[in-house]
Amino acid sequence: MRYAHEVGKVRAAEQALMARLPEGTLMRRAAAGLASACARLLPHVYGARVVLLVGGGDNGGDALYAGARLARRGAAVEAVLASAKAHPGGLAELRAAGGRVVNDAERALDTADLVIDGLTGIGGAGGLREPYAALARRTAHVEGVVVACDVPSGVDAGSGRVDGAAVRADFTVTFGTYKPGLLIDPGAAHCGVIELVDIGLGRDLPDPDVVSPWPEDLGVPRPEPESDKYRRGVVGVLAGSERFTGAAVLSVGGAVHGGAGMVRFASAARPVELIRQRWPEAVTTVIDPRPSALERIGRVQAWVVGPGLGTDRGAETLIEAVLRTKLPVLVDADGLTVLSRRRDLLYREAPTVLTPHAGELARLLGGGVTREEIEARRLEFVRRAATELAATVLLKGSTTLIAEEDRPVRVNPTGTPWLATAGTGDVLSGLAGALLAAGMSAIDAATAGAYLHGLAARIAAGDPIDPAPGLEAPISAYDVVTALPAAFRTLA
Ligand SMILES: NC(=O)C1=CN([C@@H]2O[C@H](COP(=O)(O)OP(=O)(O)OC[C@H]3O[C@@H](n4cnc5c(N)ncnc54)[C@H](O)[C@@H]3O)[C@@H](O)[C@H]2O)[C@@H](O)CC1
Ligand SMILES: Nc1ncnc2c1ncn2[C@@H]1O[C@H](COP(=O)(O)OP(=O)(O)O)[C@@H](O)[C@H]1O
Ligand SMILES: [K+]
């Protein structure tokens, strides 16, 4: 896992460590890591033109000390000061090493081979003010490499929020631990490649607030020699209605390719007929929306309920029946709309996974919360939802977040904006439901589901011969289903 800590905890850990070390040690460690990352990015340090954008805090200090190191190795280092308060020690060291302060930022940036963004780090608060904002905007036109010190300036380190101008870095060198805002969009999209520099915070850091899994953290079960279809997990899918049939086909597709031993599908006659044609491997039952409807379907280990189900009384009856079982249940789409008027159904003993996008979560939370507010403060709202709704909440969107009370929030590192197309959410519901039925915990099934879903979309959108960025093509939700086996294979 990649671990991220909230800003207050980073500062507390830094303070605890600093109290045991000679003054300035941490900043020198940070600057050494930053300078060596920059040296690796330059073809030659000697003679390279390096520009430092320096704010009035310690982030600027890091940039100045790193600049001094590069200057000592023969780089021509120029500093542009955004504040009259630039770190005095760093400034003195830069000057002693032969670096200089310049006023003409335009000229300096135009000819730079590498720019170090030291405007603001974890101390940045609110949208960038002038002249910081103009300098941050100007970096978009730099031909050289842009390296953010600790956090791209303009990105809120704690949340990833961007309010106005922000640096878009090619590379971010961050110190001690990741910050949540480096992993969550829109902040994440401003970081480029992230390198973590160890400054010795180790044992002073508490448990992380946010984590992002590597493939080896996912723990997706693989069939064993003695596996049979029941042991691999039977998932029940309650989806589709006479009016909406496509969502059911996609959800069952996600479950079939999600590794379920068996998929049991139950719905009205028309969706059942379509599933029989499209997914002959699913075991189907036509049901009426009665409280006893589940009895005819047979045993399952987990339920997926909601895609295309409609939001009428009948849908509510089925959702109520499923949530009254003692099995893990994943609720998506129309199921979430029904739950927003029946939150009482959520207070149950078995695990519940909710997979809303921001609009659905706004309805679920109620109280006037809007989709826009959730999109702007995703981390805060996903945590709040997990607590208030007593469920594992997977919040979809440009960065999918997964929260469960009293645990670090998981950030999904895969995915692509090409996923933003109708029906892909239905695929995720079936996929994560199959992983739940396979015996994964709610948070692990949601995490692995989001990971494989995002990866399948990337595989589907990418050019198989030249998977370079920029060569992707639009995908359908069905393409995501088809690419799931390739996504699973990458975990082998
Ligand atoms: N505390 C420590 O021990 C260490 C801190 N380090 C560095 O110090 C940074 C934190 O330093 P600071 O706490 O001084 O904070 P920052 O340097 O991140 O930001 C504070 C400065 O930015 C200005 N500022 C804040 N928000 C602004 C806005 N919206 N528009 C314009 N200006 C704004 C403030 O006026 C102040 O001058 C870290 O990100 C890291 O780079 C590292 O040297 C490692 C050790
Ligand atoms: N900008 C984006 N970048 C990456 N993924 C996105 C983006 N917007 C949406 N997604 C993903 O696309 C999927 C859409 O799901 P959802 O909103 O439920 O749509 P639908 O109900 O039509 O299936 C989710 O997995 C979501 O995380
Ligand atoms: K910065």
Strand order of the largest sheet: 1-9-18-17-16-15-14-13-10-11-12
CATH topology of the largest domain: UDP-N-acetylmuramoyl-L-alanine:D-glutamate ligase
Query: What is the 3D shape?
Result: elongated
Strand content: 15-25%
Number of domains: 2
Mean pLDDT metric = 96
For the largest beta-sheet, the strand count, sense and barrel status come to: 11 strands, mixed
- Proportion of helical residues: 25-40%
> Which architecture of the largest domain does the CATH hierarchy give at level 2?
3-Layer(aba) Sandwich
3D structure, described in words:
In the N-terminal section; belongs to the NnrE/AIBP family. It catalyses: (6R)-NADHX = (6S)-NADHX; (6R)-NADPHX = (6S)-NADPHX; (6S)-NADPHX + ADP = AMP + phosphate + NADPH + H(+); (6S)-NADHX + ADP = AMP + phosphate + NADH + H(+). Its cofactor is Mg(2+); K(+). This protein has two domains: 209 residues, YjeF N-terminal domain (Rossmann fold, 3-Layer(aba) Sandwich); 275 residues, Ribokinase (UDP-N-acetylmuramoyl-L-alanine:D-glutamate ligase). 38% of the residues lie in helices and 15% in strands. Helix 10 links the parallel strand 11 and strand 12. It contains 18 helices and 18 strands. The longest helix is centred in the C-terminal third of the chain and has 20 residues. The model has no long low-confidence stretch (mean pLDDT 96). Helix 2 crosses helix 3 and helix 16 packs parallel to helix 18. It has an eleven-stranded mixed β-sheet, sandwiched between helices. A seven-stranded parallel β-sheet has the order 4-3-2-5-6-7-8. With 492 residues, it is of the alpha/beta class. The structure holds ligand NAX, adenosine-5'-diphosphate and potassium ion. The site of potassium ion (K) has 12 residues, from strand 5 and strand 6.
